[in-house]
Amino acid sequence: MSVRTTETPPRSGVSLAKGPVAVIGLASLALGVLGLIFASTSFSTDAPDGIVNGGTFIGIEGNGWTWVAFAAGGLLLLLGSPIHWGAKSMAFMVGVAYGVGALIALSDGTDILGIFATNNWTKLVLGVGGIALIVLSTLPRVGRRRGAAPIDTGTEIERRRFGRDRVVERETVPAAGRTESPGNGTLDDRR
Q1: For residue 155, what pLDDT is reported?
Q2: What pTM was computed for the model?
C-alpha cells in the first residue's frame, strides 16, 4: 500500500525572475542617480493639478522627485532580487507603481499630480518598465522539484517513520503495454 501526498514540494531550480529584476533595478537606479546629477534637481511641486517641469537626461524629462522615484524603485528591485519570492514581490509592487504613474501622466499631460515632471519618453519608460516588471512577477522557478522521487522501475522502496525507520517494499503498477509478474506485496502489512 502506498502513501500519496497531495502537497507538491517547492522547486529548487533556477528562478526566471531574479536576474531580469536585478538588471531592471540596476538600470532604474542608475537612471535616477544620473538624472539627479546631470538634469534638474528642483524639488518644487504644484500639487495636485499644477504644472511641473524639469530637466532632461537622455531624452527623459524629470525633476528631483522623478529621479528620486526612479532611484527608489531601482533600489527596491535590487534589494529584492537575491531571493526568488522577493524578486517577484518587488517586481509586482514597483511595476504597479510605475504603471500607475504612467497612466496618471498620460491623463494629466505634462506631469504626475503636479509633483513628478514627465514628457513622452518618461511616460514610455514608466509604462514599459511597469509592464515588464508585472510580467516578471509571474515567472516561476524552473528545474527539478526538491524531494522528487526517482523514476520507478518496478518495485520501489519507501522509508516511513513510525517511531523508528523501517523499509517497506511494495508492488507498483507496470506501465501500459508492459507485462510484469506480480511481486510479493509488502514485507510488513501491520498498521
Answers
A1: 44
A2: 0.69
